[in-house]
Amino acid sequence: LDVEIDLGRVESVKEISTGFLHNINDWIFQPLSVTYEVSVDGRAYHAAGTVSSTIPMRHGEIVKQYFTKKIGGVEARYIHVVARSIKYCPEWHKGAGRKAWLFVDEIVVR
Description:
5 strands, about 110 residues
């Protein structure tokens, strides 16, 4: 996932959160990490932080995990979100070597 969000105007951003599904039985894995960057003009971006997964990759239950980064009131109009996927099912998985899915359902900016 690599997406840019335009808030429409400069806002004070305190937190960015993105929700991902984890369901390895359907080849859906949460990202390894999610990185956030912010910008006032859409050209010069500044790192807001990276959040790593807290769910073990082999976790067998269906879970929705939020990757949340508190950034303390940074001025921004644009937010760049990059989620680092595993891309392929691991060797221990029934779909080993085949493409893994990355399901995102919402990006919340507070």
